[in-house]
Amino acid sequence: MPTQTPSFKNYLKRRQAIIDTETKQQEEPKALALFNEKTFYRSFLKDMIEAEKEVIIYSPFISKFRSDFFRDTFKKLRRRNIDVFIFTRPLDEHEYFMRSEIKSALSDYEEMGACIFYLPGSIHEKVAIIDREILWEGSLNILSQRTSRELMRRTSDEESAKQVMAHLGLNKNLVEGYKDKYERMYRSLVANAKDDRMKKARLFVTGVLLPILTWWLFFNFKVMIVALKGVKLIISFIRSYH
Q: Could you report the per-residue pLDDT of 186-229, keeping only the tens digit for each?
């Protein structure tokens, strides 16, 4: 068997060290960050503000208190064109005396640019997913919590986020949400294009045709005056001749 050179032995050692490191990383459980009702919102708002594409909130219950709390953040997301999707219970699955407040809060979210899906069947899961990479899950109703004691877990793992999305059946709803969004954008662009054409037509009429027409009328009016004066002279001449 040929003798291995020192450089080749070092290469094998480095290669084995890399393999051992990767194997250890795969075996180690993912680091999990746990939050309670006091520490959750600060970290969650930070994730929302740093979102690059999409924010999904799965919250069965809604309160006006939380819609007011999220107002500035949702407006910032809308200005940055970040898509926000809210999954919650239909209005008729809430206590009657709460429906007015919930309806007002939902209207607030719609005005702030959120797309809302109503899932019947007394859903109770509490989840948020940022850019399909950061997963928040636990006991806290994100859009209604106020004084209750809760536990939430944050996992920064794309595969975990996709698994939860599939488990909750969100993808089909999101497809419809994006379809509706871009159809509305298309209709808006078509309407804007029509408005632009109308504006251009009005500018053409007021800036080009109207001055030309005014000049033409003025010129022809002067021609008519001259013609009338000529006719008057001819009539006077004929009368004087007779």
A: 666 676 666 666 666 666 666 776 677 677 666 776 666 766 66
Tokens of 180: 């509706």
Give the pLDDT confidence score for residue 169 in this predicted structure.
93
Q: 């959120």: which residue's tokens?
A: 114
Name 220's Cβ contacts closer than 8 Å, sequence gap at least 6. none
Spatial distance between the Cα atoms of 197 and 83, rounded to a whole number of angstroms:
30
Can you list the domains of the chain with their CATH numbers? Answer: 9-168 (3.30.870.10)
Sequence-distant (6+) residues with CB within 8 A of 41 are 69
Give the C-alpha separation, 65 to 12, whole Å: 62
Q: How many residues does the chain have?
A: 242
